[in-house]
Design a protein that fits this description.
Blueprint lengths: L1 H19 L1 E2 L9 E5 L3 E6 H17 L17 H18 L4 E4 L15 H13 L3 E5 L4 E2 L3 E8 L2 E7 L5 E4 L1 H4 L9
Parallel strand pairs: 2-4
Antiparallel strand pairs: 1-7, 2-3, 3-5, 5-6, 7-8, 8-9
């Protein structure tokens, strides 16, 4: 009898633990959206969330004197304060001019960090994407089916004592990995 109770308790704990990792995106109509296509999915991001992020950055970057440590995205890691300020100025200028225009991004295309087109916003989208995904503020469309997914899961990985989220479809296929954006991708080239 004790074993049966212990087994039932263990199953409840495991079920509760898995339930905490599931994300159900809010089913809100997105009138003005950004489409961001990755290898296995398309993210539909509400432009208002991006606007709120830039409004917050206006204050935070000035308070932190445009410190590159404000960002987790690895693309900012090698910049000076002046370069962070200049890049943010370019991004803010483009964002202000294109708020009413449709924006579409794809990881299938090369996007240069210093480009003076819509790609200048991509590092900032990558910066806020994990939080938006975790809180269900992004609609996720499975590229293989073309249908919006009603839920997805979050797993975690540790790399060099840092913890990163992995967003996956329910069946386990990876949607997006934080470590691919926030860590230097090193390869051994026979050196």
């Amino acid at each position: 009898m004790k074993n049966l109770i212990a087994l039932a308790a263990a199953m409840v704990i495991v079920t509760c633990g898995k339930a905490q990792n599931l994300v159900k995106p809010y089913d809100i109509p997105l009138k003005d959206s950004i489409f961001y296509q990755v290898q296995s999915a398309v993210f539909i991001i509400n432009k208002q969330d991006v606007e709120d992020y830039f409004t917050g950055l206006d204050t935070i970057l000035v308070q932190r004197d445009y410190a590159k440590e404000t960002f987790r995205n690895i693309q900012f890691a090698h910049l000076s304060q002046e370069e962070v300020q200049r890049h943010y100025g370019m991004a803010k200028k483009f964002w202000s001019a294109s708020k009413d225009s449709p924006l579409t991004y794809s990881t299938d295309r090369i996007a240069l960090f210093w480009s003076e087109n819509e790609n200048v916003l991509l590092p900032y989208l990558d910066e806020i994407l994990p939080e938006l995904l975790e809180y269900g503020k992004v609609q996720v469309v499975d590229r293989s089916t073309g249908k919006r997914v009603p839920q997805f899961q979050i797993d975690y990985e540790s790399v060099d004592t840092k913890h990163f989220r992995i967003f996956k479809f329910i069946k386990g296929r990876i949607i997006w990995r934080e470590s691919e954006v926030f860590l230097e991708q090193l390869t051994n080239a026979g050196i």
